[in-house]
Structures are given as C-alpha cells and as structure tokens.
Amino acid sequence: MTIAVLLIIPVLITVVVVLSSWRMFKDVTVMIWRAYFNLGKMVGPKAYPLIGTLWQVKTNSCDLTYQLLNWASTYAYYDGSTGLVKGWIGPIPLVLVLKPENVKKLLESNTLITKAEQYGKLADTNEKWFGRRKMLTPAFHFNVLKDYQEIFSKEAQVIMVDLLEGFADTGREVDLFPYVKRCALDVICETAMSTQMNAQMGKNSEYVKAVARLSDLVFLFIRSPWLWFKPVCYGCGLGFEFDRLVKMTTDFTRQANRRQSLIDEGRMDESEIANSKKKISFLDLMLLTQKKNALSDEDIREEVDTFMFEGHDTTSSSMGWSIWLIGQYPEYQAKVHEEMDAVFGDDDREPSEADLKKCVYLEKCIKESLRLCPPVPFFARRLTHDVVMDGFTIPKDVTAAILPMGSHRDPEQWEQPNIFYPDHFEPEAVAKRHPFAYIPFSAGPRNCIGQKFALAEEKTVLSYFFRKYRVEPTTPLPGNRFVPELILKPEDGVTCHLFKRVRAW
Length: 505
Ligand code: HEM
Fold this sequence. Notes:
Elements: H1 2-20, H2 22-38, H3 61-75, E1 84-89, E2 92-97, H4 100-108, H5 126-136, H6 142-163, E3 174-175, H7 177-193, H8 205-223, H9 230-235, H10 238-255, H11 259-265, H12 270-275, H13 282-288, H14 297-328, H15 330-344, H16 353-358, H17 360-372, E4 379-382, E5 387-389, E6 392-394, E7 399-402, H18 404-407, H19 427-432, H20 451-468, E8 469-473, E9 482-485, E10 487-490, E11 495-500
Cofactor: heme
Keywords: Heme, Iron, Metal-binding, Monooxygenase, Oxidoreductase
C-alpha cells in the first residue's frame, strides 16, 4: 500500500504538471523546430543539442560581457555580414541583432514591443504597458523636468561640496562610484516619490544594499535558464531571497505614499500637471490621476518601483563611466574645464536651462561614454510574429536581443569604434551616421521615457564636479572591465585622485 502510494503520487504530479504546461510546451517546441530550420544558415558560435551554446558561455558575468563583444566582432563585423548572430541558451534560440537597419526594424515596430521572458519578474504585458506609458508621459513634460533641476542641483552640491572636498589634494585615493550612486538615488527618490532618502548622508543603507543585490539577481536569472524553473529557483533559495528583497523595497515605496495629502490638495488633470508651478513627483502624478486611469494602489507602487530601478542605477553608471573616461584624457578634461569656466566663471550657481544648453562639450563626452559603456548593455524582445531580416524568417516567439555595447562599436558607423572620442558627436558626424547606430536609450515606441531627465541630471551633477575638480583615475586604460549587474558597472569602481581647480576665467 505504502509503495503503491509512493509510486502513484509522483506519477500524478507529473501528469498534472505536463497537462497544465502542455500548451506552453507545445508552443515552445514549435518555436524551437521552426528556429532550427529557418535559422540554420545564420552564423553564430557552435551549438550542441540541448546544451546549445551554453558550453561556451562564461559563468563569470564580467567575462560573459567580453564574450558577447567578441561574438559581435567575430560574427557581425566583417564585410557582407548581416549582423544577425544566432545563439542557443540551452535548447532555446536567441538572435542577436547588431546592424542598425535591423535594429530599426525591431525597435520601430508598434507590434514588437513585448519584453522577453528572460526579464523574469521585471517583465510586463503589452496591454499594461500601453496604458502606463500614456499616463506617465506628462511626468516627463518639459515644464515638469524644469522643476527637478533644483533637486539635481541640491543633491549634486551635497556630494561635491560637503563629501568629496575632504579627499581633494590629499593624495588619498577615492572611489567616486558609490558617491555618484547615492547622489542619483537621492535624486530619484525625491523626484519619484517626493521623499528624502538621504543615502548620501548614510541613511537607508539597507534599501541601498537591497537594490544592488536585486540587480545582481535579475542578471543572474537572465543568464541561467535552469533558474527559470520555479522549483529550482526557490529550491536553491534565490527565489526566496528575491521575494524578500522585493518586499523590502516595495515596503519603502509604500511608506512614501503621500495619498492623503494629495487627496486633500484636490485633483488635477494632465494638462494642469504639465503647466503646474508646483513640484510634482511621479508618485503625485499617479495619485492625482488614479481614478481616471483606473489604477490600483498596487499598480502605482509597481510603477514607482520601476522608476526607482530604471532611474538611478543607469544614471549613476553613466556618470561614473563619464568621469573615469574624461579623466583618462587630460586634453578632453581640459576642454571640459574650459567650457565650465566659459559658462559659469567662478560661480557655483545652480545651472539654468540656458547654462546646460551651453555645456555642449560636456554633453558630447557624456554621449560618448554612453556609447562605449552603455548602462543598459543589452535588452530583448520576444517576437510576437514572424519577422524577416536579411532573408531569414525569424519565427514568432524567438527572443531577439539588441546589444548596444556591440552595435556601438560597429566599425562601419564609428570612426574610432573602441576609443573614447567625443568628436563622434560633432553634428556632421552625427548626420552621416545611421540613426539607429546609437541606441543607449533604445528607440521607437518603447524607448527610455527618462532620457531627457537623465541627461539633465548628469549634466548638472558633472557641471558641479568639473567646475570644482580635476580628476586623475588610478586605474589606467584599458583597465576597468564592465561588470554587467544588469546595468554595466566599472569593475574597479571609479578610483581617482582629486585636485581642486584654480578657475581660469
Ligand atoms: C543614462 C541613463 C539611462 C539609460 C542609459 C536608460 C536606458 C534605457 C533603455 C535602454 C530602456 C529600454 C529597455 C528595454 O527596452 O528593455 C529604458 C527604458 C526605461 N527607462 Fe531608462 N535609461 C536611463 C535613465 C532613466 C531614468 C532617469 C528614468 C526615470 C526617471 C528611466 C525610466 C525608464 C522607464 C520607465 C523605461 C521603460 C519604458 C517603457 O517600457 O515604456 N530611465 N531605459
């Protein structure tokens, strides 16, 4: 009796699991067969049945980034290449799309906007996305962004003036990366939730650690197909750790919910928000339009969490790389200093909109840093229908991955593909290039909603930094490898010697 029960239970469980996942199983099998036949001639690293290309994939995330770059240059950057590279994550096909013509086809489409499953818990559905995107657009209206300028400046001055000053001219090395990161976190917290995080002053360090660990975990989930199976993911404890950290960060967001005060203040419509003189955070915006957009409290929390994640790790990575790269080239740093002196003289004022417009060279350096070290090094779409590219029919349900860090080094598009060269952003050079050759913020309907915000924040913070300091990185070129913890970070941080400037105005 006992043995019979012991045998029957696993069989029953297997039958239930197979039946419940039969549809998914059927769809995936059809997709795999179609990919196998349609993409047979597409170039890519050697794959074997079941394990696919995984036998070649580096387990160290840093090595993996360089391996992807290596695949891009081996399989995509030669004359006559389509720039399409096939890989297999175990038995699941993946196509890397590297040439701008094909990137355009993918990103401009209004139907191919579904994020890939590999995003796991960070993915959402199309229906949800359409509504949210429409609702959030006013929060990035030009007039609203102007209000955030004050917050950018306040937080920038806190790190530059109060915290870094102690390192200048002392011969002591300082890693600027955590400083820039906490500054970006304080900025996003105040703009997204009207809440003072004060990470720069050492507050809320648990939240800061949780956010860092969550991005590690998401990246681990993306590159480890065995963790896509819930029993494995929870069995090894990582699923529970992920859930615990998500709960911790979302509890923080919940506490910041200023619902009552907004209800008391009354509700506005979207045009009033865009023209409002009052500072409106993203959270305010959602609470103000909650009824109209039929949002639950949980929807609002989710959306604010997205901002918290997308909005600080990316900008801090970009600012960190920019300082490190500018510091490597004294001639470029001198040009930035010259520009700072011409725009601000010896004034420590908050940059006005006109000031920021004049920081043209600084902007070129930031853009060039986003080219070489794009904070979002890759992103993916699950094809919702068959797509024909360069004679290949890429089947529905296959994941197409865009690799800005690879596309941004295409020798057909860039004069100095592997070198920091701000002149890539001279207007004549930009005009000659394919518009989809440069995609740090993605492009098309699902592009980064926060790109203007990001550039304004970065220009403000870096304008304070370079007004005041000269920097000499202690890790020379070509050191500092990329660590892709979902967002691309410098392996050795941004370790530097700082020198106070005597301004030559
Ligand atoms: C240098 C800084 C930034 C970079 C390089 C960057 C890059 C990107 C990229 C590549 C995507 C598309 C990802 C995909 O399709 O899977 C994206 C989406 C997004 N970004 Fe950014 N981002 C930056 C800053 C920001 C900031 C400051 C915010 C908010 C304040 C933000 C909010 C978002 C949101 C909400 C999305 C999702 C848009 C959608 O799906 O409609 N980003 N970002």
